[in-house]
Amino acid sequence: MTKKERQAIFDKFGGHCAYCGCVLQKGWHADHVKPIRRKFKYDKSKQKLVHNGECRHPKRECADNYFPACASCNINKHSLSIEDFRKLVSGFITSLNRDSVQYRIARRYGLLQEIEKPVIFYFEQYKSEA
Ligand SMILES: [Zn+2]
Asked: Which CDD domains does the record match to this protein (predicted)?
């Protein structure tokens, strides 16, 4: 990817993460909106899976399929579709209540408030100034 292509991805949503809307910092990721699903093979010398340079959906390697994303959103989205990523984020309150003692205590002390609302990604409400 050239610097110009990467800049065009950065500019898609005014320098914000396409998903959470945070201002992108150095080290932001170019997310494949529709996942390309890289192929991996086991490397005996490294004792781990390594990317073999191929992917299951090579036609998705195009400018239209890239969104700018913060590292956190891109890592959590991983190879999920947009709708599966939305389901994942929607379930975070449930998993916090199940798995985090600190979260449950903070809720009991009224330090945080849960609200029911749909997960709407930044790109879905972004209005270009152009
Ligand atoms: Zn984000």
From this structure: HNHc
18 Cα–ligand 1 center, Å: 7
Q: Output the CA 21–ligand 1 centroid distance in Å.
A: 6
Q: What is the chain's pLDDT, residue by residue, as a tens digit (130 residues)? A: 899 999 999 999 999 999 999 999 999 999 999 988 778 889 899 999 888 878 788 888 888 999 999 999 999 999 999 999 999 999 999 999 999 999 999 999 999 999 999 999 999 999 876 5
Cα of 56 vs centre of ligand 1, distance in Å, is: 25
